[in-house]
Amino acid sequence: MTPLRLMASRHAIFYSPLIGGIAGGFFAKEGFEATYQVVPPGRHVAELIGAGEIEVAQSAVSASWTFLEKGQKPPLTHFAQVNQRDGFLIAARTADPGFTWSKLAGAQLMFVHGAQPRAMLAWAMHKHGLDIAQVRAIDAGDTAHMMAAFRAGQGEYFHEQGPYPQQLVQEGVAHIVASVGDSFGPLAFSSLAASRAWLAGADAPRFMRAYRQARRWVNSAPPEEIAAAEQRFFPEIARQALVRSLEYYQRLGCWQGEPSIERGHYDVSLDVFQHAKLITRRHAYDDVVVAPPG
Q1: CATH topology classification for 2-84+188-287
Q2: pTM for the complete prediction?
Q3: Shortest CA distance to 68 belongs to which of 291, 287, 290?
Q4: At 268, is the pLDDT very low, low, confident or very high (cuts 50, 70, 90)?
Q5: Which of these, 53, 73, 104, 135, is most buried using a 10 Å CB contact count?
Q6: Are 106 and 135 a contacting pair, CB within 8 Å?
Q7: Nearest CA to 219 among 181, 246, 184, 190?
Q8: How far apart are CA 11 and CA 9, in angstroms?
């Protein structure tokens, strides 16, 4: 068996195409012994890829822009999309069938403050005629701390990827009222990245065959089947919360179509980051993206 070290920038059911490669046995069928972990505090997947400590990471094209903004060559390149939609949800403390985005103005919103999640949230609010500066922002830290803070009564609204809002719903402390991904169309949200040297090797086409199968599986299999296989990756999450998350992402269309990163989707992500003033110029697609191996 060939060792395959996988790493996620964030851990969520949203990234089921990668997790499903292990949970569904697709990497094993191609002869890989895959391991999966979340990036350790203080490290970055680009650094780990550059150092040869991992083979493949869940990342985003924006990770390469950080290097290009400094005039540096990125140590990673993006070869397949994981999600072609933003997967974050807005949950409210109380049920609100008549929710409108305007209700976020002046409200206490606990949201993920990382560069891409914040930029995408700001873009969604912009699409609804709001500025993110209008919310009373709460930064509670990582997902575990956010969950604990919301359970303890902090904030009126909660912003995260599935299955975390669905888990709060399961516990009876939140109600999902809005979808960031429904606010705008497809874009290059999250991707798989590796070094150009690894992508040129013999393992990359085998990996891609397995990944294509895993992506098709999580897009079309019954959510109950996927949830059962992936439960071990989310021991603290109720099975029904996983099922509801998978149902939502299948319906949203995150995992549909070919896994190649389309130029048009890439351009929309550039729009989002320019709006957030996180990049100073539009970085060339060919400096960041390559076609899937094989």
Answers
A1: D-Maltodextrin-Binding Protein; domain 2 (3.40.190)
A2: 0.96
A3: 287
A4: very high
A5: 104
A6: yes
A7: 246
A8: 7
